[in-house]
Design goal:
Layout (H helix, E strand, L loop, with lengths): L5 E5 L5 H13 L3 E5 L5 E3 L2 H13 L13 H11 L6 H8 L1 E3 L13 E2 L9 E3 H7 L6
Parallel strand pairs: 1-2, 1-5, 2-4
Antiparallel strand pairs: 3-6
Helix pairs in contact: 1-3
């Protein structure tokens, strides 16, 4: 009997890389993971360096042949988790299909239990993913 585990994680004030690593481990174990409040996830470091790095990623390649790098916060979180999975193998692809990321909390998920991601006391500079996305061209609808 295969029991499907579903975990809903709140990304508010969670460090993006640490969150992605934890989610990747859970996905590889076979759990289904939903991340909410992806735009409130933070990236630590110098804001100028962060912005330069994400701008460079967006401008790399061409519109025809890629590589394609997203500018919406939910897609950036998905892409970060994908980088921590062996997504070119069957096991990694199956794990990646079990990931859902939302910018806010959808109405159907508000009634379910949401686990807060372990927030760290960040002593360095940081930027929220919403601000990074806005600066690289995302227009919130």
């Amino acid at each position: 009997m295969n029991v499907l585990m579903l975990m809903i994680i709140d990304g508010k004030n969670a460090v993006l890389g640490r969150l992605a690593a934890q989610v990747a481990k859970r996905l590889l174990k076979g759990e289904e993971v939903i991340i909410v409040n992806a735009d409130k996830t933070i990236i630590t470091g110098n804001p100028d360096t962060i912005l330069a790095e994400y701008t460079t990623r967006r401008q790399r390649g061409s519109t025809e042949f890629g590589p394609y790098y997203p500018k919406t916060p939910d897609a950036i979180v998905r892409r970060t988790v994908r980088g921590m999975l062996p997504y070119k193998t069957g096991r990694g692809r199956e794990a990646f299909k079990k990931l859902r990321v939302h910018i806010d909390i959808p109405a159907e998920l508000k009634i379910q239990e949401i686990v807060s991601a372990p927030a760290r006391n960040v002593k360095s500079d940081f930027m929220t993913l919403e601000k990074v996305s806005t600066l690289i061209g995302w227009k919130r609808v």
